[in-house]
Amino acid sequence: MKKYTFFILLGVCLLAGTVAQAQFQSGQRFISGTADLSTNRYSEQTDLQYIYSHSMHFSVGRFTRDNRAMGWSFSNALSIYKSGQFVPEARALGYLSFGIGRFVEYYQPLGRKFALYGRPSVGVGYNLQNQFSVASAPTIAGKWVLFNQVQRHTFSLDVSLSGGIMWRFAEKWALQGSVAGISPLGLGFSRSIDDRYGLAPNTQKEKISQTQLGFNLRTELNTGSIGLGLRYFY
Asked: Across-strand partners of 104?
């Protein structure tokens, strides 16, 4: 029961009535988001290695009435890995994803600068992922031999509920902290292609395709991380 404490308290606050003046007034618009970027490059006479990744999440919305907003969320992630250490060369694109969602936010002010919020949402997404495995065989010209590479395309539909706290430290700026989330319903369709190269001993070259349709009904509450983001009001 402890893992549901946050949402129980959040629900009580949202239903208890407005005990402070509305911080978020009807007609206000906002944009918020987070971004992470990392890159690493290594080069020598015989080796080349380049790693790049980013992830971006942002939302736009409008308060349709005091302390209630509706909006859209967008996300994108990308990872690239290039190396001259494999035969054949591993695919450079490791991961690519896009997502779009529709959400509603309900706020319960706590004084003049802080507020709790709950955010039910529904979203659709697409991701492409490339994975490879190395054969347990001698190297070729000092390079690792790939056993196979798998490319997977996944389309998903998710219903989720998240919550957190908002600190409006200036008239047009706020710091948003998401502290808990649950995704009780998920639907996914994926197709994967497994390329086996037959370069390792006792293996043969072949291509295997597989299609999967998945349905998830979950009740697990995620509270292990805190997400921070800035929000601008205009």
From this structure: 70
106: tokens are: 């309900």
- Look at 127-141, 150-164, 216-230 and tell me which has the smallest mean pLDDT: 216-230
What digits encode the pLDDT tens for the residues 156-191? 999 999 999 999 999 999 999 888 888 888 999 999
pTM: 0.78
> Do 25 and 58 meet the contact criterion of CB atoms below 8 Å apart?
no
pLDDT, tens digit (0-9, with 9 covering 90-100), for 51-104: 899 999 999 999 999 999 999 999 999 999 888 788 888 898 999 999 999 999
Q: Which of 13-27, 41-55, 93-107, 212-226 has the lowest mean pLDDT?
A: 13-27
Domains of the chain, CATH where assigned: 2-233 (2.40.160.20)
Cα Rg of the chain, angstroms:
23
DSSP string, the chain: -GGGHHHHHHHHHHHS---S--SS-TT-EEEEEEEEEEEEEEE-SS-EEEEEEEEEEEEEEEEEETTEEEEEEEEEEEEEEEESSEESPPPSEEEEEEEEEEEEEEEEEETTTEEEEEEEEEEEEEEEEEEEEE-SS--BTTBEEEEEEEEEEEEEEEEEEEEEEEE--SSSEEEEEEEEEEEEEEEEEEEEEEEEE--STT--EEEEEEEEEEEEE---EE-S--EEEEEEE-
How far is 190 from 96, CA to CA, in rounded Å?
A: 14
